[in-house]
Design goal:
single chain, mainly alpha, two-stranded antiparallel sheet, 12 helices, globular
């Protein structure tokens, strides 16, 4: 029995960890800015391209391969520092207070631009560099050999959940974000610089997306079209957990990860549709997601 349950559990957690990185940034941005960022998947794939390029450079110059771990984090920081303030100030800021349809159309236009930008800069070939995964080796659990890199991903996802909760509940920045989320006009009236909060929150969302793409690169590589796939999956996770709910994104990632792994074990042809079948079931029971609730809407 354990020989069947342990592989299923670990595979589900590893899959959920990567899905969580793709979705939590989208959830954070929506909770603070109230903007559905359709371009989120492109930022995920850009993080993957940058990380793979740096790791390939390290390998080609025969530098210390352990630098590739720093490269994964460094690439996410660079993408967030460049694209976060640029997109928030140059585009997303103009959608505040607009209808959801306008926000989706504008960020979808940004998604198309970023997808073409990736093809111009990185070409149409796939990138793959698995040095971080090879360096960590393997571990036998319950008679099954696992990549230690998968276990690292699970640990990092847990750290992100705990870190975000600590940031929001126990830091000054977190209290400012909570004030803006609760009542934006009231926060402005008492002197909170909401524009600065929006830039920081959006850049943190970009960082989490890029970090997800960077961490996924050693396991699956990066190729054109990943941004679109990630965007759809991240929206499914956000819908299951409830838009704007960080804990909801974590639980939804577990559900989607388990659904995908069960499909791979029992009916591999259903792998691609399993996350959306899970989303359909949850939304039929809880239309606002597991952690979502009905909220008053300003007209």
């Amino acid at each position: 029995m354990l020989n069947a349950v342990i592989p299923l559990l670990l595979d589900s957690l590893a899959s959920a960890a990567l899905i969580f990185f793709a979705a939590v940034g989208l959830t954070l941005v929506f909770s603070v800015l109230r903007v559905l960022n359709v371009a989120h998947g492109s930022l995920y794939s850009i993080g993957g391209y940058v990380a793979a390029s740096i790791c390939l450079f390290i390998a080609s110059r025969q530098l210390n391969p352990y630098w590739s771990f720093l490269a994964l984090l460094f690439s996410a920081v660079c993408v967030a520092a460049i694209f976060g303030p640029l997109i928030e100030r140059g585009l997303v800021r103009w959608t505040y207070g607009k209808s959801e349809a306008v926000q989706i159309l504008i960020t979808f236009g940004l998604f198309l631009i970023l997808e073409d930008l990736q093809r111009v800069i990185f070409g149409v070939q796939s990138f793959y560099e698995d040095a971080p995964m090879r360096l960590l080796g393997t571990t036998a659990i319950g008679g099954v050999v696992y990549l230690n890199y998968q276990i690292l991903l699970i640990g990092m996802a847990l750290l992100v959940v705990i870190g975000l909760r600590l940031l929001i509940n126990h830091t000054r920045l977190g209290r400012l974000i909570t004030a803006v989320v609760t009542d934006r006009e009231m926060a402005q009236s008492i002197g909170i610089d909401t524009n600065r909060i929006f830039i920081l929150a959006f850049s943190l969302g970009v960082f989490l997306a890029a970090l997800g793409g960077a961490l996924a690169t050693p396991t699956s590589g990066i190729a054109p079209g990943l941004g679109a796939d990630t965007m759809v999956l991240a929206f499914a996770v956000a819908a299951i957990g409830g838009l704007g709910q960080i804990e909801g994104a974590a639980l939804a990632s577990l559900i989607v990860g388990l659904a995908r792994v069960l499909a791979i074990y029992l009916a591999p042809s259903l792998d691609a549709v399993a996350p959306y079948a899970a989303m359909l079931v949850v939304l039929l029971i809880r239309p606002y997601g597991l952690f979502g609730s009905v909220a008053a809407r300003r007209i």
